[in-house]
Amino acid sequence: MKIGELAKRTGATVETIRYYEKENLLPEPTRSQGNYRLYREEHIERLQFILHCRTLDMTLEEVRVLLQYWDTPDKNCGEVNILLDEHIDAVEKRMKELVQLKQHLLDLRQKCAKEAPAESCGILHALADNSYHLSSG
């Protein structure tokens, strides 16, 4: 199948597929006589694996490690467990950061309770005040 069909079957964009090829996450496809990329079922499976990892917010480096295990199914998967535990920790850290961000935005929102001319907007003044972020973070 050509790249457009692979994109349609996986939901990836053509640009994403080319990027994953460039990053050596997808094996280089064979070429037709007209120099079109020709993909096989294994490309679909591998691309779906990559896309699923990305929906879990895994980095390309994490995906690369997971693919090494995918490619060597007899290898012990202890490192996969460690990688996922580290990713879970990173997600938990990010969740805490997002809670702090939300609180910061809520605090900022309280700076301007009603419509007023922009020159007197408390939110804009607080955003311009470098000490506000430092003292409220």
From TrEMBL:
Top-level taxonomic group: Bacteria
CDD domains: HTH_CadR-PbrR (cd04784)
PANTHER family registered for this protein in UniProt: HTH-TYPE TRANSCRIPTIONAL REGULATOR ZNTR, REDOX-CYCLING DRUG-SENSING TRANSCRIPTIONAL ACTIVATOR SOXR
Keywords (A to Z) from UniProt: DNA-binding
Domain HTH merR-type: from-to ranges: 1-69
SUPFAM superfamilies registered for this protein in UniProt: Putative DNA-binding domain (SSF46955)
The name this protein goes by in its record: Cd(II)/Pb(II)-responsive transcriptional regulator
